[in-house]
Amino acid sequence: MRLSNRLLTNAQGLAALAARLRLDELGLEGDPAVRPQLERVVDALGVREHLDGLDEGERSVLLSFTRSYLAQAIDLVEDPGRPGEWSYSDPVLLEAQGSASAVVARLIAEAGLGTPGARILDVGTGVGGLAVALATTFPGSTVVGIDPWEPALVLARERIAATGLDERVAVLPVTVQELEDVDDFDLAWLPAFFIAERFLDEAIARIHAILRPGATVVVGIPGGADEESLASAVDDLFTVRSGGSVLSPEDALARLRRAGFAETWEVERTWDAPLRLLVGRRS
After folding, report:
1. H-helix or E-strand containing 191?
2. HEC sequence for 10-47
3. H/E element holding 105?
4. Which of 8, 19, 54, 204 is packed most tightly, with the most Cβ within 10 A?
């Protein structure tokens, strides 16, 4: 019983943190009886100094991650036997996942990858959060987001129209294997955690074919925590349940080399998100 109490407390603590972030986002005080208890939980978690130091963008990313994690956790409890695949259609979850992915644009830029005016491919674009962020981060660039999941693309088209980027960002209901472009992109984003392992080598090979000489692919894999830790186990569980691949950096780099990428390396992690970035450059 002691173990279950600790786990329940952790889950409730995350929910309280998300609630506090949501109130901040909405600019609300909340119920006068509940708000002091939220603040008490924030203090007990030991994260007040961190929360107070977040800017608006960082707060939005953290809230998006927590909302997505909580929604996927509820789905796991309600339907634990379903096959591992991306099957979420709840707009709240889809928007949360898309908003969280937007941070990848900043990480790519900070790694010195991507340039203004580039033609960029966003594989697994979802609601278009990253596609819009890439277009904003790299002025004059054009972004093609692809995703076979129509419930997400409906939201992506609305997001693109709302940001006025219709002429620079487009989304297509296809998989990367179905793309017919050749030598057409300067940069490609490939989230391995959304692609089943049985399709991964084919996807990487196709990206090699559609990149221009000298262009790069950035592969995202889950990681950052000790492989034996609870955090790593949970990350891998939800990656596979969402239909994605769990890879080591060495495995990801080997797959890039087998596909023909002459230069491969891992970007040094300077961020807290459970994400590792592997890069392949076409010669």
Report:
1. strand 185-191
2. HHHHHHHHHHHHHHHHHCCCCCCCCHHHHHHHHHHHCC
3. helix 103-110
4. 204
DSSP letter assigned to residue 269: P
Q: Are 159 and 128 in contact (CB under 8 A)?
A: yes
User: Which neighbouring-strand residues pair with 187?
Assistant: 120, 216
Go through the domains of the chain in sequence order and give each one's CATH number.
2-78 (no CATH), 91-281 (3.40.50.150)
Helix axes 91-101, 150-163, angle to 10 degrees: 60
Single-letter amino acid, residue 130: L
Measured at the CA of 227, the angle between CA 221 and CA 232, to 5 degrees, comes to: 65
Least confident of 25-34, 89-98, 132-141, 184-193: 89-98
Q: If residue 94 lies in a helix (H) or strand (E), which one and from where to where?
A: helix 91-101
* pLDDT tens digits for range 86-98: 888 888 778 877 8
